[in-house]
Amino acid sequence: MSFLKKIFKIGTKPGTYSYRLERARELHGQAIRYVTERRENNDDVIGRGGALAVHGDNFIVDASGDRIFVCEIKHLDISWLMSGDGVIIRGPNLLEDGRERTITVHFVYYRK
Fold first, then answer.
1. How far apart are CA 3 and CA 16, in angstroms?
2. Predicted TM-score of the model (pTM)
3. Which of the four, 10, 80, 81, 85, has the lowest number of CB atoms within 10 Å?
4. DSSP secondary-structure letter at 31?
């Protein structure tokens, strides 16, 4: 995000493809501590270690040496956790024939 966009709060509108692409690019290369998914009343850990990536028009979550989640950016919904140390990712998972999936990705802490 550019300096002027931050100051004047201008930019793309939420829900548009350019907004989703910008959010996905912000996360590209981010290191993952662990990935959880809510099932019934529990948060189950479904992967540890790995990274987030943007490849072409797809957003990819790799953890535990496996590809956990692949979604087209035009259908992707990303929300930051209030603590700032992770994101909630929603969208149709292409690895599961488009089944809607919601996962929470927690980042590795690096002091900046």
1. 21
2. 0.84
3. 10
4. B
Digits of tens for pLDDT over the chain (112 positions)? 566 666 766 667 788 888 899 899 999 999 999 999 998 899 899 999 999 999 999 999 999 989 999 999 999 999 999 988 999 999 999 999 999 999 999 999 765 5
Instruction: Report the DSSP pairing between strands 86-93 and 99-107.
Output: antiparallel
Query: Which residues are bridge partners to 55 per DSSP?
Result: 58
Query: Which tokens belong to 30?
Result: 């981010």
| Rounded Cα gap, residues 95 and 40, in angstroms | 22
